[in-house]
Amino acid sequence: MAVMSPVDPAADAKAASRSAHWRPAGALTQFSVFAERSLRTLIADRRLIVLMLAQPLILLVIFSQVFGSLAHPSRFPVGVNYIDYLMPAILITSGIAAAVGSGSELIRDMDNGVLTRFRTLPVGLHWVLVARAVTDVLRTAVQTALLLVCAALFFGFTPKGGVLGVCAAFLLALVVITSLTWVFIALGAWLRSARIMQSISGLTLFPLMFASSAYVPVDSLPAWLRAVALVNPVSYAVDATRALALDWPVGGEVASALATSFLVMTVAVVAAVRGFRRPPTR
Amino acid sequence: MIHTAELTKSYDGVEALRGVSLDVEQGTVLGLLGHNGAGKTTLVNILSTLLPPSGGSATVAGHDVVRESREVRGRIGLTGQFASVDEKLSGLDNLVLIGRLLGASRRQARVRAEELLSAFDLSKAAHRQCRTYSGGMRRRLDLAASLVGRPQVLFLDEPSTGLDPASRISLWETVEALVADGTTVLLTTQYLEEAERLADSVAVLSEGTVVAAGTPTELKARVGERTAHLSVTRREDVSRAATALRRAGLSAVENPGEGTVSVPVVAFADLAHVVRAVDEGGVAVAGLTLSEPSLDDVYLSLARKSTAMPAV
After folding, report:
1. Are A159 and A166 in contact (CB under 8 A)?
2. Chain A, chain B: beta-carbon pairs less than 8 Å apart
3. What letter does residue B191 receive in the DSSP assignment?
4. B23 and chain A: CB distance < 8 Å anywhere?
5. What is the reported pLDDT for A3?
6. Element (H, E) at B22
7. Fewer beta carbons below 10 Å: N end or C end of chain A?
8. Phi and psi angles of residue B208, each rounded to the nearest 5 degrees, phi first
């Protein structure tokens, strides 16, 4: 088609910049704007807050009362009551559920038109992901802290590791949860389909949680289940957390849990950012 | 302000754009016409840096859309068919958020947001979640959102869809004011009327290529005439009316089944001739309507022409 005017990008650029009146926001501003957005939408619905806090509590009641009342399996460590055994595991398993939720939330957010608008703004898209990861882990941290307090107050949670041990366990759990959150954020960024995400979470959530040392000692599981539990990374995370909280001898478990988490997190972050940056399908 | 050279885009085996070259000068409006699937939205998405092109190049506001996308993004605004605001936030929060991402301080962003909300008559709903807004309000908010950064180039992708006539006119007035202020606008639309009102030049996109470009008047002149449809009170009068018109030097097509006579007219003044001719013929007229060439007429005509003349 005929060119209607001489092409002069330099003149255009000059004309355009004469009126661009703000300089694009820096990294920290971008992060805090996105984080504020995530938090604000979280707080916007009061009902969600109540559910958020009630859900882990309900799980705690169910697990402690139902499982705790069963006769202890033969390989149960002596002198440890069930609630002390269970709590560190709950730190990890509630984190798994939250991580899966993060992935689903990201997909839902991607259907939200505003993300398309963000793609047309001079911002780094990865900050959207970082903001999501940070706010989600923060939310989980608040929930689990509340759980610990309730367990201590109402369920007889008196771990030998004391406050220090529990804090250490809490921090380790947060690292594990953060890396899991990034894994599911990466999945969400690549899959972009709520249905596929649901199927994946359905398939993986229960095996991850139950085929592990979370609720019963691995040795007391039937042979085939024990085999799964021994390759389940959750078992190792739970073992490390438990050792810290109950003041058990700590071998390399804590170190390897940390190392694995950081490794997984690095891969997941790279994958997530790559996946998210891909243009929308239209 | 907007320049594309042989822009192509294919995905999923579909060739959405096949060599589009356009130029839009600063402070003008280009109307992009085309049916669904013609490639309008794909073109807008590429120019607004949402999609990378498969081939060719494009510069917006003096920067290449692929290599300097960040610079482009700081100078454009986009309003899409799908209002892209965060439904869970309030109108005010949405605009402030965008302002801050563009580099405004919290206070500056708020001032700008309130200014826009008032200009678009959304001040009363400013603190409500967007989820509660009506369709028209959401469109206005979406447009406001695209204007937060005072963009040099504005992309409006079918902005009137779903708007009632009053809102549509209001939108047109807003766009005209922006253009008068120096903003460059690329507007995609299916309404010839909208292109006629707003566009300084028009390009017609069909199956990924530009099949015609020019001013709206030029385009309509290429397509054909307006047609006056005269309906007579008595069916028998159709041939009498036609005779009277032909005697006055006008061509007439009789539609006895409908009781109307169709007369091609070029200028509105011709209508006076039509009425006078029929009146002098002593025929009782029941009604007179004027039909404009429609977008379909544009396509049909251009499709015919483009097969006859490959180099358009």
Report:
1. yes
2. 143
3. -
4. yes
5. 37
6. strand B14-24
7. C
8. 85, 0
How far apart are the CA of B80 and the nearest CA of chain A, in angstroms? 9
* Partners of B184 in the β-ladder: B153
Map out the domains of chain B with their CATH numbers. 2-221 (3.40.50.300), 225-291 (3.30.70.100)
CB contact (8 A) between residue A116 and residue B22: no
**pLDDT tens for residues B137-156?**
888 899 999 999 999 999 99
Chain A interface, mutation test: which of B64, B66, B84, most A Cβ atoms within 10 Å? Answer: B84
Q: Which of A148-162, B88-102, B185-199, B251-265 is modeled with the greatest confidence? A: B88-102
CB contact at 8 A, B194 and B187: yes
Residue B22 contacts A where some CB pair is shorter than 8 Å = yes
Identify the DSSP state of B124.
G
Q: B39 CA to chain A: closest CA distance, Å?
A: 11
- Which two three-digit tokens encode residue B176? 């005209």
Q: Is B291 on the interface with A (CB under 8 A)?
A: no
Asked if B7 is an interface residue toward chain A (Cβ–Cβ < 8 A), one would say no
What span, in angstroms and rounded, lies between the C-alpha atoms of A198 and A191?
11
Closest chain B C-alpha to A136 CA, distance in angstroms:
17
Confidence at A20, pLDDT banded by 50, 70, 90 = low
Check CB contact of B137 with chain A, cutoff 8 Å. Answer: no
Give chain A's length: 282
A251-278 per-position pLDDT tens digit: 788 888 888 899 999 999 999 999 999 8
Each residue of A63-100: pLDDT tens digit?
A: 777 766 665 655 667 667 777 888 888 888 888 888 98
Q: Which phi and psi (to 5°) does residue A125 adopt?
A: -60, -30
Determine the average pLDDT of the residues in A138-143: 88
